[in-house]
Design brief:
The protein has 206 residues and is an alpha+beta fold. 27% of the residues lie in helices and 33% in strands. The protein is built from 6 helices and 9 strands.
Length: 206
């Protein structure tokens, strides 16, 4: 069974933040160095609306730089790319990948991201005590050098509720994060399909 951690957090606009982001496309020379990315077809299926994939883009979007779960480890630096995914509904996703100088650095970044995701509800509680969160640990995946999947449900004092699935994985010196979100709660989270998406994301890092 997943492990639950309750705390205050702030993700009432999580889906909108996932759908937003910079639009600067990767320059041709940078694109050749970018790791492989998910395609729209790799995301958990949305029966009422197909996924649309944005361009693979160099850098880190502003939404990630300000994110309580990811900003400390992904809030800057070179060798980083991302791709946004949107639907016509209230569901959006993003993949962020970073290439480190060597495997040791990548192991450290993976560990830091994993710890930051685990602890982000406590940090956001201090930022906004009007929102309550439950973090669920959905376990690790045996793919390449490993991956870990989490779920984060948030609810505000005025009733807004969001569900978010987060995963971090590593292949060699490259680390990737997949971030999926929509309005709803854990019952709306496609955990099995998201685990498949995470496995695909890590396999494509070659």
């Amino acid at each position: 069974m997943p492990t639950g951690i309750r705390a205050g957090t702030l993700t009432a606009v999580a889906v909108a933040a996932l759908a937003a982001g910079a639009t600067l496309a990767v320059p041709a020379d940078a694109a050749t160095r970018a790791p492989g990315f998910l395609r729209a077809a790799d995301l958990p299926p949305q029966p009422s609306s197909p996924w649309t994939a944005g361009k693979v883009t160099a850098g880190v979007p502003e939404e990630v730089e300000n994110d309580q779960c990811l900003s400390r480890a992904l809030g800057g630096g070179s060798g980083t790319w991302y791709r946004n995914f949107t639907t016509d509904l209230d569901t959006a996703a993003r993949q962020v990948s970073v290439q480190l100088p060597d495997v040791r650095a990548a192991k450290g970044r993976f560990s830091r991201l994993d710890k930051d995701i685990r602890s982000c509800p406590l940090r956001i509680e201090r930022a906004d005590p009007e929102v309550e969160a439950t973090l669920k640990d959905y376990g690790s995946l045996p793919v390449e050098e490993g991956a870990h999947v989490y779920g984060l449900h948030t609810e505000t004092s005025w009733g807004a509720t969001d569900i978010r699935l987060l995963s971090v994985g590593r292949d060699g010196r490259t680390v990737t994060v997949v971030d999926w979100g929509r309005l709803g709660d854990f019952r709306d989270a496609p955990v099995k399909a998201f685990k498949k998406t995470t496995r695909t994301a890590v396999e494509k890092l070659h």
